[in-house]
Amino acid sequence: RPNIMALLPILRYPDPKLHIVAAEVRTFDAALQQQIDDMFDTMYDAKGIGLAATQVDHHQRLIVIDVSESRDQPLVVINPRITWSSAERVKGEEGCLSVPGIYDGVERAVAVKVAAQDAKGQPFEIEADGLLAVCLQHEMDHLMGKVFVEYLSPFKLGRIKSKLLKQQRV
Ligand code: K1U
Ligand code: ZN
After folding, report:
1. Is the CB of 96 inside a 6 Å radius of any atom of ligand 1?
2. Which of 6, 60, 140, 170 could disulfide-pair with 38, CB 3.0 to 4.6 Å?
3. Which pLDDT score is estimated for 1?
4. Is the CB of 37 under 6 A from ligand 1?
5. pLDDT tens figures, 27-50
6. Which residues touch 134 (CB under 8 Å, ≥6 apart)?
7. Which regions of the chain does DSSP assign to beta strands (E)?
8. Ligand 2 being an ion, which residues bring their Cβ within 5 A of it?
9. Buried-exposed string 46-84: b where 16+ CB fall within 10 A, e elsewhere
10. According to the model, what pLDDT value does residue 3 have?
11. What's the CA gap between 159 and 99, in Å, rounded?
12. Cβ of residue 94 lying under 6 Å from some atom of ligand 1
């Protein structure tokens, strides 16, 4: 099914499916490539800088990212693991396509090294800082069933949940 653009529905917080822990990708085939293409279509359409498979109800360790201004530097990250993270941490503003309209500060490692596989199963390593480092950590949390708002205070989290539930009731 090449070239047919497909937009996948994005799960909205507090959907319990966002807490499913993703499984390792073991088969690097055409179906995986199709899932990757559909996730890029969905991410670019939603104007996100990243998207984890969990967010589109696909529970495999697969992330797509493009932090470039020009939106032409797609990065596929499969079975990622952090091999090093800086002791230095910084609080930055985050958003999430599964938590629309909510932006808040989260503290993360300033820099990380991530070992991963590409769409063909080829291993590679990423050394990231800045927005890419933040995005990688945010998306890897999704694969573990964690959403960024869960780092906020219980008070803020409660307000966010009730706001999003009200929006979904209409
Ligand atoms: O839903 C997601 O996981 C994508 C998310 C990624 C992300 C953004 C910012 C910090 C960490 C992770 C988004 O793309 S939210 C929309 C966005 O483009 C953005 C929001 C805030 C700052 C920078 C970009
Ligand atoms: Zn997110």
Report:
1. yes
2. 6
3. 66
4. no
5. 999 999 999 999 999 999 999 999
6. 92, 94, 108
7. 50-52, 62-65, 75-85, 89-94, 104-109, 111-117, 123-129
8. 96
9. eebbbbbbbbbeebbbbbbbbbeeeeeeebbbbbbeeee
10. 76
11. 12
12. yes
List the Cα angle 98/15/25 in 5-degree steps. 75
Ligand nearest to the CA of 43: 1
What's the whole-number average pLDDT of the chain? 97
- How, if at all, do strands 89-94 and 123-129 pair? unpaired
How many A from CA of 98 to the centre of ligand 1?
10
In the residue annotation, 139 being an active-site residue is answered as yes
Residue 106 near ligand 1, beta carbon < 6 Å: no
Protein residue whose Cα sits closest to atom 5 of ligand 1: 96
Position 2 pLDDT exceeds 80:
no
- Among the options 107, 125, 127, 139, which is catalytic? 139
